[in-house]
Amino acid sequence: MRKTLPDDGRGWQAIEREMLEFRKDDVDWRNGRMPFQIWYGGDDIFDVQKKAYTLFMQENGGGAGKAFKSLKAMEDGVIDFGAGILRGPDAVGHITSGGSESIFVAMKAARDWGRANKPAIKDPEVVVPFSGHPTFNRAAQYLGLTIKRVPVGKDFRADVPAMAKAITPNTIALVGSAVCFPYGVIDPIEDLAKVARDRDLWLHVDACVAGYQAPFARELGYPVPDFDFTVPGVTSISADLHKYGFGAKGTSTVLYRNADFEKHQPFEFTEWPMGHFSNPNVASTRPGGSIAAAWAVMNYLGRDGYLKLNKRLMGMRDQYIAGINGIDGIRINGTPHSLIITYSASSPDVDMNVVSDEMGARGWWIGRLVQPPGIMLGLSLPHEPVREEYLDHLRASVAKSRTTKTKAKAAKASY
Fold first, then answer.
1. Nearest of 286, 292, 228 to residue 96 by alpha carbon
2. Fewer Cβ atoms within 10 A, N terminus or C terminus of the chain?
3. How far is Cα 344 from Cα 323, in angstroms, rounded to an integer?
C-alpha cells in the first residue's frame, strides 16, 4: 500500500534514525566494497565539500551572475582552473550537473554547429567507439542525432581507421574517450583529431572520468597520451568534478576550445511574457552548493594537493594491477591510463561470471564487464586498505571458477 504524508510533522531525531535505518542495506563503500560510483578523496575533502555546499545550499545556480554574483565568480574560477588543467588558454565552458549533462550539451552544441556550418545535412550522425558512454545514444534520442558505434581495436582503444571508414556525408562529429568507462584506456585522440581536422568535423573528448586526474598522473611521470586542447582538432571536452576532481555529487564541466564553439550550447528564447530567456544548461534551477563545493575543494587541494593524492592513488593502482596479473587465469585488459582497471579471463577454464558471483558472495559489489566478460574497478581511497583482502578473495574466486561444473548464467552489467 502506498504511504501517505503524515498528518503531523515528526522530530528530527526520529527522522534521522529512520534515514540511517534505510542505509543499512546499502553497499559498504567506506570499506571499499563499491567498485565505482563513489570517488572518495578523504574525510578532510568531504568536510570541505559539506561546509562549502551548505553555505550556498539555497542559492540558485540558474541565477549565477544575476542575482548571485558569488556563484558566477566561483563558476568562472572553476572553469579557469579546468581550462588550465586541460591546457586550453582560450577555452570557455560551464559547470553542469554531471557527465551526462556535459555530454548532452556538448552534443547539442555540435548539432547546432553542424546546422550553422553544414546546412545540407538533415540527418546528422556522430561516430563513437563501442566503448563510448551510453549517454551519447541517450542524447541522440533527444537531439535527433544518429549514433554510429564502431568496434574497438585489440588494445580496447578506438579503432581510428574503422571510425574514419564509418564517416558519411551526414557525419558532423567524432567522439573519443579519456578514459573510457569500460576499460580505463585513453583513445588515440591525436589520430582522431587529425581525421576531424581533415574532414571538418567536431571532435568531442569524453574525459568525464579522468579529465581532472590523468593530467596529474602525467605530471607524476605516468605515460598519459595527450587528449586535451593541446591537440589541434579537439573541439570540446567533458570532465567530471565529482569523480577525481573530488567535488560534491552532481558537478561536472564542459569546456570548448573557444567561444566560437561554445556559443552553440545555450538555449535562447524570447516568445513568452517575460522576454529573453537564455540558459546553457538543461536545468534552469541549479544547486549553488555544488558550484561552491567544487570551487572550495579545488582551492583546498591546489595543484600540490592533487599531485600528492594522485601519487598515492596511482601507486595503489599499480599494486592492484600487479596483484591481479599475478593470479593465474586472469589478466588486466589493455594498458590502463588512469584509475579505472578491468580484467578478464586469460585461461579457457576460468569463467568470469562465476568469478563475479563468487566475489559477490564474499561481500564485494561487482562492476560486471560484459564484452569481454570481466570485472571493472574504479579505484579511490576506500580501496586502499582492503587491497590484500580483495586479492585474496579474487584468488579464491578464480580457483572456485575452475572447479565449478555448473557455470553461472551470463550476467547483465551492473552499471
1. 286
2. N
3. 14
Q: Is the per-residue pLDDT at 411 higher than 70? A: no
| Residue 299 exposed, middle or buried by CB count within 10 Å (0-12, 13-18, 19+) | middle
Distance CA 256, CA 398 (A): 45
Query: What CATH code is carried by the domain that includes residue 71?
Result: 3.40.640.10
Tell whether 213 is covered by a domain: yes
Asked if residues 123 and 172 have their Cβ atoms less than 8 Å apart, the reply is: no
Cis bond upstream, residue 372 (ω within 30): yes
Q: Enter the C-alpha cell of residue 175.
A: 567522439
Q: pLDDT tens for residues 304-346?
A: 999 999 999 999 999 999 999 999 999 999 999 999 999 999 9
- Are 292 and 310 members of one domain? no
Cα–Cα distance, 246 to 42 (Å, whole number)? 9
Q: Which of 337, 53, 12, 41 is nearest to 188 (CA)?
A: 337
User: And the C-alpha cell for 193?
Assistant: 583529431
Burial of 73 (0-12, 13-18, 19+ CB in 10 A): middle
Domain count, the chain: 2
The DSSP secondary structure of 50-99, one letter per residue, reads HHHHHHTSSSBGGGBTTTBHHHHHHHHHHHHHHHHHTT-TT-EEEEESSH
Question: Could you read off the pLDDT of 113-170 as tens digits, one per residue?
Answer: 999 999 999 999 999 999 999 999 999 999 999 999 999 999 999 999 999 999 999 9
Largest CA distance in the chain: 71
